[in-house]
Amino acid sequence: MINMRRIWFVLIAMFTSLGVLAQSSKHDEIAQKVDSVMNRMTLEEKIGQLNQLTGDGEVTGPVTLNQDYQQQIRQGMVGSMLNVNGAEYTRKIQKIAVEESRLGIPLIFGYDVIHGYKTIFPVPLGESSSWDLEAIEKASRIAAREATAAGQHWTFAPMMDISRDARWGRVMEGAGEDPYYGSKVARARIRGFQGEDFSKANTMLACAKHYVGYGAARGGRDYNTVDMSMRRLHETFLPPFKAAIDEGVATFMSSFNELNGVPVTGSKELVQDLLKDQWGFDGFIVSDWGSIQEMIPHGVAADKYEAGDLAMNAGIDMDMEGHVYIEELKNLLNDGRISEAQINEAVRRILTKKFELGLFEDPYKYCDPEREEQELLSEENRAFARKSAQKSMVLLKNEGVLPLSKDLGNIALVGPLVQADEEYIGTWSARGEGRHVVNVMEGFRNKLGDQASLTYAKGASFTGQSKEGFDEALQKARQADAVVAVVGESAMMSGEALSRMNIGLPGLQQELVLELAKLDKPLVVVLMNGRPLAIPEVDEKAPAILEAWLPGTEGGNAVADIIFGDYNPSGKLTASFPYDVGQVPVQYEHKNTGRPKVEGQRYTSQYIDGPNKPLYPFGYGLSYTSFEYSRPVLNKQQINFDETLRVQVDVKNTGERAGEEVVQMYVRDLVGSVTRPVKELKGFEKIALEPGQTKTVTFKLRADDLAFYTRDMEYKAEPGEFKVFTGSSSEDVQSASFKLRR
Ligand code: NOJ
User: Fold this and answer.
1) Taking all residues of the chain, what is their mean pLDDT, rounded to a whole number?
2) pLDDT at residue 16 above 80?
3) By CB atoms within 10 Å of each CB, which of 184, 323, 388, 674 scores lowest?
């Protein structure tokens, strides 16, 4: 009998090798084309390709020079522009490069398409709370479709900096505190932006940023010093960047910060040696805005000349808005501080991406006003923004108040965020506009029509100490059947250069909520913010709290969907919410110490004025239904290094509604050559369960999953005893034990 399996294998192998051949021949073809362009380039034109300038759209950093960038494009002195927007405008600027510069090399347009272009999705920290990688990928796909229709080729996203410091304004822009989960999200976002083929007009280059350690700024103050052990760097901060390479990310951005005394933008060890040589990254690396010349104030370069020397020798290919390469590379070359081969290598990397994007064939294919018109803010995109916002929201507390009945006669909506459209889209809102936002008031109206009367009072502001609005708010609340307080941070309270030292509800919003809580009415607190907040008093007094983040264009509809029970909340936190800023950094993945806390025992590791644990831990989030977990069941008590352990857990929906649950698995290595965390996330699955339904979730663990940087900095697993935990959050778990043996 013909062995069908064998034939299949042969066919698959043939097709795979044909695919590989096709890819490598495409690769060779592009390499040849790059060479032929480079052969015609002068040194000045080559250096021009390494220069990126900001246009006259909104400016996303301190402008260092008042330049006439169009003239510089004409002279072949610019390889890429950022902050130039719209199909027509990018076409106009591209035309200058293509028709008026000597060689007509097209520009790459880059832009911060962080969580949407025109249709804005929840801020990334919120979006990550969905634990729904498909949805996260799809949101990036939509963002890419919109941005590419409007002329963009390259997004400066995703930000994959792990951060455990809620004071840092940019926690908003990442996927939270965990490297395992952060790596998965980074990959999903990259897949979404890049698709399968750069030459398609609706895919764009992604950028792994900010390489590296940026999220560990001392004191949570943006741009501040970073100092950490190499073990910590490798175990916590580097994994998402490595994952980005595995996903085929096209570009990297070096971070502003110094790391252990050396600004990363000037670190040959981290950029050239690790990223390019060891990991084999073959795309190009752009500095962050001005980060080459910021090596002067950092104090490792006396002037631009020295800064350029450090950056080029570190392996930075493109200078974003720093004007250092354009001014100094030629001098550095003449003095023998850098070689022509280094310049050629950087140019080659950049031109390769221009060819892969198809810009040499059709430099205008991304500037399509008709597609822009159809794509931006389409019904389909908005509908998905609503879904994405629903999935991102986390129910933090519910003492039987939610969902509210649609039959309530009178609902008071209170707080500065009820109808503050501009705030819903956050600071990285690209071309998003407040006027397109559905706010909570509108979301309620859309949901309830004339069925209920809705009253509104702002009550308090984001800043200041005025209680002027309290009376009106309390009066309206008294007359209502239920009160919904929409409070939190304004958009300008999270994001770049927006760190806070106090992470409570700003202004007098907490006082307002506590006054509302005294009225003894059904009270729902809807939080909108870009970071974990410290809100123990609100948690104590308010019967229901929904974390809605800065929810984007469809935020108000999504809030209404959840409040009135049309969507059962399914989000879980990806960053712990501390009781108090004094606990920061606080994360589930911590070490045990030699004196782990024992309640009531003085000489153990604890605070005398508050708990060690966060208020709401990583992985936490409630549902309108309830889930019951079995203990984890293992198929073996011991595994060898080449075996797989199966961990099974049954999860039952014991409530009355259908719901989704994020089932989580954590591991602890009990004894290692170096201390190991009390828990590390190693798997998760989001499942949907009908009332009464049970599903078995199966996780797999292999020795590779248990590897870490050992005492001698080797990445490997060590034999010994492990605990595995399964459950509904990093704290609500049940455990089993197993051994790994040689
Ligand atoms: C500085 C930010 O750190 C970076 O994330 C961003 O992409 C650039 N500015 C460009 O706007």
Assistant:
1) 96
2) no
3) 674
609 counts as catalytic: no
How far is it, in rounded angstroms, from Cα 396 to Cα 167? 20
Domain extent at residue 687: 627-741
pLDDT at 23: 75
Whether 615 is in a domain gets the answer no
Q: Residue 24: how many CB atoms within 10 A of its CB?
A: 10
State how many domains the chain has. 3
Average pLDDT estimate for 2-30: 64
pLDDT band at 22 (very low <50, low <70, confident <90, very high): confident
Contacts of 618 (CB under 8 A, 6+ apart): 176, 177, 178, 573, 574, 575, 576, 587, 588, 589, 681, 729, 730
pTM here? Answer: 0.96
The reply to whether 345 and 236 lie within a common domain is: yes
pLDDT tens per residue, range 227-267: 999 999 999 999 999 999 999 999 999 999 999 999 999 99
Give the pair of three-digit tokens for residue 134: 């498909």
Top mutation candidate among 320, 429, 499 for ligand 1, by most atoms within 8 Å of CB = 320
Could you tell me if 308 and 408 lie in one domain? no
Report the alpha-carbon distance of residue 21 to residue 27 in Å, rounded.
9
* CATH number reported for the structural domain that contains residue 459 in this entry: 3.40.50.1700
Q: Which of 58, 85, 109, 112 to mutate to test the pocket of ligand 1 (most atoms within 8 A of CB)?
A: 112
**pLDDT reported for residue 91:** 97
Distance CA 285, CA 275 (A): 10
Q: In CATH, what number is assigned to the domain containing residue 145?
A: 3.20.20.300
Same domain, 538 and 445: yes
* 709 C-beta closer than 6 A to ligand 1: no
Minimum CA distance residue for ligand 1 atom 8: 289
pLDDT of 104 over the 70 cut: yes
* 214 pocket-lining for ligand 1 (C-beta < 6 Å): no
Nearest-atom number in ligand 1 for the CA of 321 is: 10
Torsion of CA 611, 616, 619, 624, to 10 degrees: 140
Residues, the chain, total? 742
Instruction: Determine, yes or no, domain membership for 298.
Output: yes
Which residues 6+ apart lie within 8 Å of 221 measured at CB? 167, 168, 499
Phi first, then psi, for residue 143 (nearest 5°) are -60, -40
**Same domain assignment for residues 343 and 388:** no
Does the residue 208 lie in any domain?
A: yes
What is the spatial distance between Cα 138 and Cα 558, in angstroms, rounded to a whole number?
A: 17
Question: What is the rounded distance in angstroms from the CA atom of residue 736 to the CA atom of residue 718?
Answer: 19
DSSP three-state, residue 5: helix
The amino acid that residue 544 corresponds to is A
Say what percent of the chain tops pLDDT 70. 97
pLDDT exceeds 90 at position 629: yes
pLDDT in tens, 149-201: 999 999 999 999 999 999 999 999 999 999 999 999 999 999 999 999 999 99
Closest alpha carbon to 92 in 359, 367, 365, 362: 367
Q: Which of 132, 161, 165, 288 is catalytic?
A: 288
